[in-house]
Design a protein that fits this description.
The protein has a single domain (17-151), classed as 3-Layer(aba) Sandwich (Beta-carbonic Anhydrase, Chain A), CATH 3.40.1050. Helix content is 34%, strand content 20%. It has helices spanning 28-38, 64-80, 95-98, 110-128; strands at 17-21, 46-49, 85-91, 133-141, 147-151.
Length: 152
C-alpha cells in the first residue's frame, strides 16, 4: 500500500439496513460473511458493533445509560439513513452476557436469555419504530468449530 491508499472506493447511494451485533473477535469474519453472502447485502448496510450487541437495547433495569445511548444511536440510523430493516445477531458464549445478573432473565440458560432479549427488542420495535422489519439471529459453532447462524 502507498501512503494509506486503499483499493476500496466509497459506496454511493443509500442503504435501508442496520445490523447490530457484538464485537467479539471470534465472530467478526462469520458475521461479515453472513451479512454479505448469507443475506446478500454485499456490504450495503450500516453496522452498530457493541459489547452484547442487541442486549444494549434491553438494559433499562440494569444499565439505563447504556440502553439510552443504544436507542439514541438506533434512532440516528433510522432517521438519518432512513433504515427500514433491522438485523439483530446474538452469539454463543457471549462474555457480556456473563456479566449480567441472572435476575434480569426468566431462564438461567444463556441462549434462552439471549433469545428472550431478542424478542424483547423485537416487541419494543413494534411499539417504538413500527416501520422497521426486524430479523433475529443466533450465531454459534458446531463440533468442528464452523460458525452457524440460525434464524430465531
Amino acid at each position: 500500500m502507498n501512503d494509506g491508499l486503499l483499493t476500496t472506493k466509497i459506496r454511493r447511494g443509500e442503504t435501508e439496513t442496520l445490523a447490530i451485533h457484538c464485537g467479539d473477535y471470534r465472530f467478526q469474519a462469520a458475521f461479515q460473511e453472513f451479512l454479505n453472502r448469507g443475506l446478500n447485502l454485499d456490504g450495503n448496510y450500516d453496522l452498530l458493533v457493541i459489547p452484547g450487541g442487541p442486549l444494549s437495547l434491553t438494559l433499562f433495569d440494569y444499565l439505563p445509560k447504556f440502553q439510552w445511548a443504544s436507542w439514541k444511536w438506533l434512532r440516528f440510523f433510522v432517521e438519518q439513513h432512513r433504515v427500514r430493516r433491522l438485523i439483530l445477531i446474538q452469539h454463543q458464549d457471549c462474555a457480556f452476557y456473563r456479566t449480567m445478573p441472572l435476575h434480569l432473565h426468566a431462564s438461567p440458560e444463556p441462549r434462552q436469555r439471549q433469545e428472550q432479549d431478542l424478542r424483547r427488542v423485537e416487541e419494543a420495535m413494534k411499539r417504538e419504530l413500527p416501520q422497521l422489519a426486524v430479523e433475529l439471529y443466533y450465531a454459534g459453532w458446531d463440533s468442528a468449530d464452523h460458525v452457524t447462524v440460525e434464524s430465531i
